[in-house]
Amino acid sequence: MKLLTIETIPGAQIEALDIVKGTVVHSKNFGRDFMAGMKSLVGGELSGYTEMLNEARQIATKRMVDNAEALGADAVVGIRYGSSTIMQGAAEIMVYGTAVKIVG
Length: 104
What we know:
CATH topology: Translation Initiation Factor IF3
Number of helices: 2
Order of helices and strands: EEHHEE
Number of domains: 1
Oligomer: single chain
Helix content: 25-40%
Largest sheet: 4 strands, mixed
């Protein structure tokens, strides 16, 4: 499955199938929250949160790919990621794009 942020596949003709998406809501746990609070006192990357968001992006991307595969897609083009705060301590990661079939 090809995943592209551009709108086309260079050198190929494509047929758009449908919009596909994947979402996940992740919350921080006490351990990460405590360590992030301590780290914020001295500055620097909050690696626990970075890991949490990377994991959330992977889950959301897999859900989008599963959605595309169910449609018989060969690729997803125009992929975009977004995030939002759902409540204090929880964030939604969303990924979406257009599932396409390569026809030429």
